Amino acid sequence: MKKFYIETYGCQMNVYDSQLVKSILTSNHWEETDNYKEADLILVNTCAVREHAETRVRGRLGLFKAVKKQNPQIKVGLLGCMGQRLKERLLEEEPVLDFVMGPDTYKRLPQTLEKVYSGEKIADVKLDKNENYDEIYPRRDDPYKVSAYVTISRGCDNMCAFCIVPFTRGRERSKKPDLILKEVEQAIEMGYKEVNLLGQNVDKYQYEDVDFARLLEMVARLDSNMRVRFLTSYPQHMKNSVLEVMAKYENIARNIHLPVQSGSNRILELMRRGYTREWYLDRIKAIREIVPDCAIGTDIIAGFCTETEQDHQQTIDLMEQVQFDYAFMFKYSERPNTYAARNLPDDVPEEVKIRRLNEIIDLQNKHSYQSNKKDVGKTFRVLVENTSRRSEKQLLGRNSQGKVIIFEGDKKLIGQYVDVEVYDFTQATLLGKMKN
Ligand code: 5AD
Ligand code: SF4
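^ thats the input. predicted complex w/ iron/sulfur cluster below
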């Protein structure tokens, strides 16, 4: 049997997509290897969200070029968002590549490979607004069976001014609820302890009369011992009905990722986010009222087009008001063909972007520290994910809020739930002791 090796960049949706690709290939006489040196086929599933993500992949292709030089039989394919964005152009720019595919064409992988092996160079990048990979089940191969990703919707119709995703992942579409439930049930049967429902905007999930609140409730009811996470929420569309379902089911993780991007109404409007700062703060208030123990995380972009010092201060001020438990923070990176690239000047100087980003990061570090401090003395149900990076005797797990807790314990507990009491913390992690 021929062997393939796959490397994944970007978000959880891409991790899931790679599992689909593995499933398609392994049912077509391919075998996976985790060593690219022994592979006949090298696949790179890519991200295009910021320029940096693409630069990294190009660097990686340099390595695979050297591998291919030693063994010219090897084929190299680039999948995912970067492939969708650059299409056939990539075949010219990166001669190491034999083929390029976008996120909606993986079903054709066996046919594409046939052509590739007969010497063709191919860019198969047609977006398909109906493609949900309905009949394909992802290949889940976590030996510890911790968390299973389940994609509930694909694509995005929001068209935020800065974002490449609507161009790389196409129109928004929701997967049939029955199929989602079947996929979750399958993961439960396999022994997975947690499920993570994925969509660019889960709040816009809609299949006939099933909206996200209903879907979430159906999934939560399958098994009260299975923790249910979801990602990503969208401020304009996040409804109280979802929060009410969360409050009703203890096994739904107390964690909402609600990207704000900016605290300035002027910038939010330029970003075409469809909400104001006041609206966002009202959503935060609703979360705190309805699901009081919920952790709230966000994404922030520093230095978007025309951002002034005043706008930046508004972001700082919003952070102070909300006190996010965690945040992913980026400096603005212009993406070709987006609304912002076509219509707005990328005029914040690089050093100003960096300085503002650092201010945001410093403030968030303080808030993360404060958030962790509040957990001292509390006991959490923790799903053990692995040993800690530092020591084999230490375990690393996550509580319902998604926070990482390190504690002493036996490796045999990986993949299980245990109760852990927190006695200390750093800005990044909680330190705990297992309770018997
Ligand atoms: N530049 C910087 N950050 C971006 N993001 C998306 N597009 C860009 C861009 N062009 C960030 C947003 C989004 C997260 C996934 O990536 O904060 O929520
Ligand atoms: Fe995921 Fe967006 Fe990157 Fe595509 S561009 S892999 S959707 S983060």
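The chain has three domains: 2-124, 147-373, 379-434.
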